[in-house]
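Quick one - inputs below.
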Amino acid sequence: MSKPAETAGFMSMRGGGYYSKATVGAKHVIDNAAELILEAIDRMAPPDDGSTFTVADMGCADGGTSIDTVGKILKELRHRLPSRPLRMVYTDLPRNDFSQLFRNIHGQTDLETYIDEIDDLHVYASATSFHRPIFPAGSLNLGFSATASHYISENPGPISNHVHMVGAKGAERHAYVEQGRRDWEQRLLNRASDLAPGGRLALFNFGIDEEGRYLGSTGGVDMFNTFNELWSELRNEGVITTEEYVNTNFPQSYRTVDQFTAPFRDETNPVHRAGLRMEHVETRVVECPFAADFIKHGDSIRFAREYIPTLRSWSEATFASELSANRPIEERQTIIDRFYDSYEARVRVAPEGHAMDYVHCYLIITKVTD
Ligand SMILES: C[S@@+](CC[C@H](N)C(=O)[O-])C[C@H]1O[C@@H](n2cnc3c(N)ncnc32)[C@H](O)[C@@H]1O
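Output:
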């Protein structure tokens, strides 16, 4: 049976540049909302006082999806603050492909980078989990994080009927909601410690919107249900064991808007007492670029071939990590390939309704000075 397990040890996006190449939708999520960050900088009105200004991208993966928006932010800061050195810190978990991140930022891949266009800019990385303080207290001026806060610090238990908390029932679902609540509060408290007075956080979070929609649920065929059906099929065929099936749970909690905003609405909440205030909240649905292309080209074979890598880029680690370590690595890889091949075959045969539309709750948060 599954155990409460820290998730930091196995979590990672697929490396080698696969993540940002396959995940163009996540880039749209960030680029479409860049104005929220620029407006926050405007409200912050930081003084041009010669001190170092620190920006972070927390849960950055290979940095490819945020590279244009981060470049825009840094150029704006350079323009406003000519005397201040800029420190750009990318953070993720230890298993992240930081080598690919640095290659992307330093212009050693086919991505366009900002690195040579901004003077007095210093780029670093940290592998400290965002479930902990990352910076010396009071030293972070602008913290950004996209599509990452749904990752919880530990799996609170098994989900017997599904692979994701959105399909869990009763006490099993409640355990994930509660873990999500605890981690969200603690994460905000950690950022309250990191942030300089007057600093800002821009958090673009996967969640459940006012209409109950979440990632991959909008097109008609629910993505997480499809994952679950195909993973169950492998169990029913004896390809994986019941234990492996039950242990496979995404280490994620999707929060509602109400849950995201609760710590700011309650003046007795430690987050409020730590000085964090919400300046802006909204939800948006960003359409799946592969499903949108399919509407134009109508070729289901092409759609299936292009669509599966975007799912695979972030989900593979979860399915692979719960296959028994007693299986030879080649056998595990064969099972995983078969799993995604079966997803691709489903889309190829009946493409209508498949779409990984992104559903986000966008928050801008400030730390008050008194
Ligand atoms: C879906 S990717 C999003 C990447 C990028 N921010 C984007 O929007 O495209 C989620 C990222 O969050 C990272 N992550 C998950 N849990 C984390 C944690 N506790 N601390 C730091 N990063 C974490 C993952 O490793 C992964 O790179």
